[in-house]
Amino acid sequence: MPTLLQQTPSWDLDSFISKFLQPNREFLGQVSRAVDIICSFMKENCFRNSSTKVLKVVKGGSSAKGTALRGRSDADLVVFLSCFCGFADQGTNRAEIIAEIRAQLEACRREKQFDVKFEISKWENPRVLSFTLTSKTLDHSVDFDVLPAFNALGQLSSGTKPDTQVYIDLINSYNNGGEFSSCFTELQRDFVISRPTKLKSLIRLVKHWYKQVKLPVSPSPDNFLPQSQPPTES
To answer: Can you give the pLDDT at residue 192?
Structure first.
């Protein structure tokens, strides 16, 4: 049983993060192999007999940003498609696209290329297709969120900023907060990746802390705060 965060003094947090929160190479390799399976599927199997084309598949979420927690085998993939000509298209047509991706995944399952178990969405117009992937090439299952998206940024070079018109169009298409955040996955990912390792470790720590706080525990905030002073040396 790992040391509880609230029992860890502040001067020992780096060690706590390294021992208990930071994923090891085996974990990262597992997620990477799973991502390769689904990326290949998206590019080679999806929309083969359709005018819709997969423009690019971008890995997002914590595993792409370098802030994943140990023990959480999950991955986010954003699929940019030619059928979305604007933000409004994405909002209107994404349910149909998600249904098509699911149908193709089920076809691959019948061919025993891999196995998938879908999460039932409670939304009439879901933004994401969630499923669990198992395969002979993987030691453990991996949870996926696949999000169809409008290619608002185009081919954005590293270090360059999007055209301001992109944001004008976004504001004009505004409906619900965060609805089109998947369109900006590359900006989000690159921003976090370029930050110092110390900050990424802090993000991991906060996520771990939040998971603990959500559990039914004593309401006192002191239960979740590490000791503030190191021990005095004699």
So the answer is: 93
Q: State the first-to-last Cα distance of the chain, in angstroms, to the nearest integer.
A: 31
How far apart are alpha carbons 141 and 34 in whole angstroms? Answer: 9
Identify the H or E element spanning 116. Answer: strand 115-118
Give strand pairing partners of 143: 74, 132
Residue 143 sits at φ, ψ, to 5 deg, of -85, 135
Q: Which tokens go with 94? A: 């994404």
**H or E segment at 81?**
strand 74-81
- Host H or E run for residue 97: helix 87-110
| Alpha carbon distance 201, 195 (integer Å) | 11
CA dihedral 55, 140, 203, 15 (to 10 degrees): -140
Q: Does pLDDT of 24 surpass 80?
A: yes
CA distance 104 to 61: 23
Q: Which two tokens stand for residue 49?
A: 């007999």
**Rounded Cα gap, residues 173 and 178, in angstroms:** 12
In the chain, the amino acid numbered 218 is: S
For residue 143, the surrounding DSSP H or E stretch is strand 142-149
22-211: in CATH 3.30.230.10: no
Residue 96 has pLDDT above 80, yes or no: yes
pLDDT digits (tens, 9 = 90+) for 64-90: 898 988 877 788 999 999 999 999 999
pLDDT for residue 3: 60
Where do the domains of the chain lie?
A: 22-211
